Each structure stands twice: as C-alpha cells, then as structure tokens.
Amino acid sequence: MIAVIDYRAGNLRSVERALLHVGARCTVTAEHERILEADRVVFPGVGAAGAAMETIRESGLDAVIREVVARKTPFLGICLGTQVIFETSEEDDAACLGILRGTVKRFPEGCGKIPHMGWNTLKLVRDHPLLSGVGRDSWFYFVHSYYPEPSDATDVVARTSYGIEFASVVARSNVFATQFHPEKSGEPGLAILRNFCAWDGRE
Q1: What pLDDT, on a 0 to 100 scale, did the predictor assign at position 79?
Q2: Which of 104, 110, 148, 177 could form an SS bridge with 77, CB 3.0 to 4.6 Å?
Q3: Pick the catalytic residue: 79, 87, 96, 116?
Q4: Annotated catalytic residue 144
Q5: What is the pLDDT of residue 46?
C-alpha cells in the first residue's frame, strides 16, 4: 500500500489517479498510523512553503514524515513536497523539515517568466533506480518559482536548465524527490511512478 500524504496540497488526486493508473494500491490520508504502516509514501504538493509547513506542523505530520524516512520506507517527494524536505526556503522565509541539507531559492531575475511553467528535459548527474528506463531526452512538466539547492552535491541526481541550472531530481538513501510533476509528465513520469512502486528504497 502507498500512502499519499494529505496536507491539503493541490495535486493529491492527480497523484492518486496516476498511481492507480500504473496499478498501485494507494490511499490519500493524513492519518499518522496509516502513513507509518504504508509500504511506500508519496509527499506531493502545490502551494507556498510557509502555509504548507504551518499545516504540516499543526497536524503533527512533520514528526511522521521524519519517522517514515528514519524507518527507511521508500519516500517520493513531488514539487513542493520536494522543497520542504530541505532545511529552509526563501519562500516565506520558511523553516522546513531538514531531511536533506540545503535551502530552496527563488529564481533570480533574468531567468525568464516566473513561475517556470512548462516542459523541460533533465541532465542526468548520476544513475538512480527510479530513472531506469527513462530516456535521456524525455520531457517533464514543471510549475514552480523556487528550486532546491542541496548543500551536498552527491544528493543531486539530475539538473534542468531554465536561465540557470538547478537541481530537478534529488535523492539520498530511501528518499527520492522531483521538482517536476511525474503525475503530469506523460509516459516518462508514469515510468518513474512504476519504478517507485517496485523500489526497495536502496540506490
């Protein structure tokens, strides 16, 4: 069973539909025990970091998410769910979860239209099981004004260019996270979700 964490983020149902499409058993839930008992956990998100972190803390999901990661449960972050696993975000000057070291920054002036919205490719930095079978010329769908900047370069799996080159896929141990939306990225995104459904949490 895959638990999709419900913290009132906007793309919960689209993530659920995509997981069901690839044959996964999943549930959208904010119940702590159901999340902790799940075989895999997806942390989606659309919105602002400050409001998201306020909801996460008020509901006690911050401790639950840290426990999921500590238990080595395979964990997938998507978009805002990727940003708030870092230590801080320039959006709302938010203190985040600190699962990965680093910060989240706003695109600087001159990068193009912000938010960055549309299709872009990945520049693979290193291999990862969740990208198995995904072509290097594949396109993925992005909607964001902020991007993660890991402190540890070894956490970066892929980068994307949009005025600057930024980390678009990050991973460490049982954590894998994408700045783009795999659930909105057609077959390449579905391939990542299929890989996640079979992933044991090891790189």
Answers
A1: 96
A2: 177
A3: 79
A4: no
A5: 87
Of residues 3, 43, 10, the one with CA closest to residue 25: 3
Q: What is the pLDDT of residues 28-42, one digit of tens each?
A: 999 999 999 999 999
Q: Where are the domains of the chain?
A: 2-198
C-alpha distances in angstroms, 196 versus 39, 44, 100?
11, 14, 19
CATH topology for 2-198? Rossmann fold (3.40.50)
Task: Specify burial of residue 133 (Cβ count, 10 A radius: 0-12, 13-18, 19+).
Answer: exposed
Give the separation between CA 7 and CA 28, rounded to whole angstroms.
10
Annotated catalytic residue within 87, 116, 183, 197: 183
- Tell whether the model's pLDDT for residue 45 goes beyond 90: no
CA distances from 148 to 68, 101, 113, 114, 191 (A): 21, 10, 18, 15, 23
Element (H, E) at 147: strand 146-150
Q: What is the pLDDT of residue 9?
A: 77
Report the run of H or E that residue 197 belongs to, with start and end.
helix 186-198
Annotated active-site residue 116? The verdict is: no
Instruction: Judge whether 79 counts as a catalytic residue.
Output: yes
First to last CA, the chain: 21
**68-107 pLDDT, tens digit each:** 999 999 999 999 999 999 999 999 999 999 999 999 999 9
- Matching residue, tokens 């890991």: 150
